[in-house]
Amino acid sequence: KRRYNSRLWKLFTDCFNCLPLCAVVEDKIFCTHGGLSPELHSIDQIRCLVRPTDVPDQGLLCDLLWSDPDATVLGWGENDRGVSYTFGVNVAAQFLQKNDFDVLIRAHQVVNEGFEVLGKKQVVTIFSAPNYCGEFDNAGAIMTVDEKLNCTFQILKPMEVRRAGGMFAGGMAVANFAGAQGYTSTAMAGQGQQQQMQQMQQQVATGAGAGQKRYSSVPGQK
Fold first, then answer.
1. How far, CA to CA in Å, does 185 sit from each of 178, 180, 182, 201, 212?
2. Are strands 22-25 and 172-177 parallel, antiparallel or unpaired?
3. Which of 70, 34, 65 lies closest to 51, judged by CA?
4. 48-76 pLDDT per residue, tens
5. Per-domain boundaries in the chain
6. How far lies 30's CA from each of 21, 85, 97, 122, in Å?
7. How many CB atoms lie within 10 A of CB 120?
8. For the Serine/threonine specific protein phosphatases domain, which residue ranges apply (predicted)?
9. How far, in Å, CA of 129 to CA of 138, rounded?
């Protein structure tokens, strides 16, 4: 059932066309929606992009919104979306080093645990919508950054409707990361989630999957 007309939808799209294309936190954390571009060499290029504007089918603006990291790719690859590219963790590492950033934070992809880390903890995907479209049964994640650039993830588990009585069951995991060398867990809430957190920790210990991360952009700090 349609609640609002297309005029309201047009107002939202006009608003989106004015939104910032990236954010830089304390000169160390680079945030964008999709990812990197083979045309992106300097942050000044992003500053020169004029807004409001429509998103083209190719080029720097398109790539910032549509590209995806891929741990199996070295360099640039073809994107299954049919638009933009995939980029390897080596591309991300080169970009971060050249621009004196520590980490790339992006979204744009459903990840089962709400966030996912690639490479040497230099690329983080955050997806904040649990149970996306009612189909994926994924967790969502929210990241906050404190004054010391320590990042905290709140992992939002999908809510489950109990058939008897219509009650809801779910919970939240809290993950912190500070120190680029590893992950530690803090707390879990909800039935069965402690076991899930232990599995996440084990994945991180072996370099696979998503998990709890403590991270700081301060050079040399662990």
1. 11, 15, 10, 7, 5
2. unpaired
3. 65
4. 999 898 899 999 999 999 999 999 999 99
5. 20-108, 133-222
6. 11, 19, 12, 10
7. 12
8. 1-160
9. 8
Owner of token pair 């004029």:
50
Report the DSSP beta bridge partners of residue 31.
Answer: 23, 105
Q: What are phi and psi of 13, to 5 degrees?
A: -65, -35
Give the E-state strand segments of 57-112 in sequence order: 68-69, 76-78, 85-87, 103-106
Evaluate whether 110 touches 127 at the Cβ level (below 8 Å): yes
The pLDDT tens digits of the residues spanning 109-144 come to 999 999 999 988 899 999 999 999 888 989 999 998
Beta bridge partners of 24: 30
Both tokens assigned to 46: 């992003």
Phi and psi angles of residue 171, each rounded to the nearest 5 degrees, phi first: 175, -175
Burial class (CB in 10 A: 0-12, 13-18, 19+), 152: middle
Q: Which two tokens stand for residue 87?
A: 């980029």
Spatial separation of the C-alpha atoms in residues 29 and 105, rounded to whole Å: 7
> Token digits for 103?
């980490």
